[in-house]
Write a structure and sequence with these properties.
Distance between the termini: 49 Å
Number of helices: 2
Oligomer: single chain
Strand content: over 45%
Number of domains: 2
Structural class: mainly beta
Radius of gyration: 22 Å
CATH architecture of the largest domain: Sandwich
Length: 276
């Protein structure tokens, strides 16, 4: 049962933090939880990450911490350490693991600032790198990253939404967002699609949307779901692209309704899609 749960957790890891050294393969390394948020001023107890070896051979794992952000394509980007970056303050124990086949080990994390922390978010990516075995040159090694966020002082999540549009060519909702606070904002959204002939007004479609439920009990809905979530770090402005993948091709005009929560701001919008 443990192995099944950990395999499910692996699917939550994004391509930016799961890297196959030679080709895309399912990693034999699973991590739980996939993300950690810490409040060191409230508790100095620290947290832990569980590492599971899904393979049938012992695995050596090296643990390291890296300062980071996201590049223009919303992909992981390594940054140099600063005196305010969390990688400088993390105490990781142990940093080298030998995990037997189909077994797990725990890595403990604690935050000990070396300088007075600025208010808000501090982050690091903790990498778990599978080390090659001797005389196994063809082995594919994996480097799995877990984002760690630590918060100090008054934390403010505040965003400005400049625009929300739809790119019909990529079938993606595009949101232009500025982070006006001192901690990341992560949009949370749902969408639903209805044939244009089945509704008179877009507001009727919007009334069916519920941020906590992607399944809509209405026979007129031909597709619905949730947006993938991407963070916007302070103090950045970023375009977020949320592609809507259709379960099947729609052959007549339709309307997409979206409802998005960004730092407590609720946005609703409809897009009329023509068929060419």
């Amino acid at each position: 049962m443990r192995i099944i749960k950990f395999i499910a957790l692996c699917t939550l890891l994004t391509a930016s933090v799961v890297i196959a050294a030679q080709k895309r393969l399912q990693p034999k390394l699973a991590i739980s939880p996939p993300r950690l948020e810490l409040y060191p001023e409230q508790s100095r107890k620290g947290e832990s990450i569980t590492v599971l070896n899904l393979g049938n051979m012992p695995m050596k794992v090296q643990v390291s911490a890296q300062n980071w952000d996201l590049d223009e394509l919303n992909q992981f980007r390594a940054l140099p350490s600063t005196e305010q970056s969390l990688d400088q303050w993390l105490i990781v124990n142990p940093v080298r693991l030998v995990i037997p086949a189909n077994s797990q080990q725990t890595v403990r994390l604690a935050v000990r600032p070396r300088v007075k922390p600025e208010a808000g978010e501090h982050r690091a990516m903790v990498f778990f790198r599978q080390m090659p075995e001797e005389n196994q040159e063809s082995q594919v090694n994996f480097n799995v990253g877990v984002p760690i966020y630590a918060y100090f002082g008054e934390v403010e999540r505040k965003a400005k939404i400049h625009s929300v549009s739809f790119n019909q060519q990529n079938h993606a909702v595009i949101m232009d967002v500025s982070n006006m606070g001192n901690a990341y904002v992560r949009p949370r959204g749902v969408y639903a699609i209805m044939h244009k002939k089945d509704l008179d007004k877009g507001t009727e479609l919007l009334e069916l949307l519920d941020l906590d439920n992607e399944i809509i009990d209405d026979e007129r809905i031909i597709d619905s779901g949730k947006f993938a979530s991407q963070p916007v770090f302070a103090p950045e402005r970023r375009q977020l692209n949320h592609q809507i993948l259709l379960k099947e091709k729609i052959k007549e005009p339709y309307v997409i309704g979206i409802k998005v929560d960004i730092a407590g701001q609720i946005i609703t919008k409809t897009f009329d899609i023509s068929i060419r």
